[in-house]
Predict the 3D structure of the following.
Amino acid sequence: MIPEIDLDPFSTAFFDDPYPGHAAVRETAPVVWLPAIGSYGVGRHAEVHHMLMHWEEYPSSRGVGIRDYKVHPPLRGPSMILETDPPLHTTRRAVLNQALAPAVVRGLRPAFEAAAAALVERLLEQGEIDGIADIAEAFPLGVFPDALGMEPGGRENLLPFGNFVFNSMGPDNALLAASLAELPALAEWATRQSQRDRLRPGSIGMMIHEAADAGAISHQEAPLLVRALLSAGVDTTVNGLGAALFNLARFPDQWARLHGEPGLARGAFEEAVRFESPVQTFFRTAGADTELGGMALPEGAKVLMFLAAANRDPRRWESPDSFDITRNAGGHVGFGAGIHMCVGQILARLEGEAMLAALAKRVARLEITGTPVRRYNNTLRGLRSLPLRLHAA
């Protein structure tokens, strides 16, 4: 018998303080029933990781949001990567893996590090900043579109476009309605920006179009794959950087460690993704009658994976509610796992590392000078504003 929990994971009250709800889902049973959304839920690392790793049991092609695409048509076109399964997924993912190969990303490092260092110098002159607008948003919105090959105009559309995509994974609530109102203009911009003639030669976006020239994918698929990167390539990085800044400022001993050893920047970003989980949840659908954690699930069951709860599971982590930048956070599910693991994670990690290392070298202390303001989204957890003062080293 699967126990029932009175919890609405898409309510404002939950968004404000999700941790008691995470603990309830995680500690009640391996699988729980959430009548508020008509879905099952899992919060333990072992079960979440199992679902992510076994696409045959829990196919993504039936939607990673609350809607089962076998029953209800999607609000948007299914994601070219996130909502396809092999063999189609394998072909498309190979193209993106080649465009985002380690050698390609290594080539981006000098430009990313230079941009981060220049941004820090400008912000030190200001002293008082908004950590979200001035760092967590400004840096990715500068370097990521350049790497993708985008033209300068219109980059402000990236965040609201991604905001819609992640809101669409939840129920028909006010957050989704607000995003839908913005969608027509954003979708038109994203479609136009993904075309070959809008992308710089030698860029990641152009590599995807060149893969179509080589026959790896069709010319119809190429702009749709570029658009998929547009919709998912910024939000996790923005919210991951925001989480890192917020927690490094809240825990000054951790900032002191990072300031003393900027080489810990990669680990600090990784721990922020584990600790705060910018992507809080994803759904999967049981493709057939199955069992999870010894509990029976029927075919067609929607299951909400609480990635954030899994990332603080005491069965997997020692002192999971402690923010420790020296922790080995490997194995967290903040970027997913398995074949559908976040395709842009390699860029997100480079951006996070470059920005935090640049700050650590020049800033002795981060001080929160006002009340942080949360941004609400059906899938993402992040801040809208983080008033900070940078104390120069």
